[in-house]
Predict the 3D structure of the following.
Amino acid sequence: GQLNPVFHVTTRAMPRASDPSGNYCLHFLGGSAASGDYCFTLSFLSSDFDKLTNQSFSFLLTAPAGATGVSLLHNGTQIASVSGGTQPPTLSITSPKNGDQWSGPQNLMWTGSGSAPLTYASDYSYDGGLTWMPLSLNTTGTTLRVNPGDLLGSTVYFRVQASDGFNTTAAQVG
């Protein structure tokens, strides 16, 4: 198995409860042992009951304090894990700058560094940061072509998040 990098997000939404009879579990590494595992049921059958070789999932979870990674367990056996670097990533948006006005397609650009390889996610907000709409996810590049005509709203904020596998840093401009 393989796990994509973890991205930490801030939200008012509440995580769903773990399914104690689930055949897969996420187990946080390094944090409080009292946090327990988050279990869920995952099927490798399509809606037409054809067998699948891989399956995607995502969950909103609260990581325990001090967690340094997460592993995926299938019926109690670890099949994949991901952990962060020794230091959290650093990140800076280089374009646009606050107050820039775009007409026509432009590049959203950033720089990032970390003690482990970085993966990025970018999004934008048209309502002052209350709602975020995805632009890209799980990319290793540091430039994204954006056409303002494709975005909701006339004034937007851009946010880029960098993950080193488990640790996340965000930068915002707008």
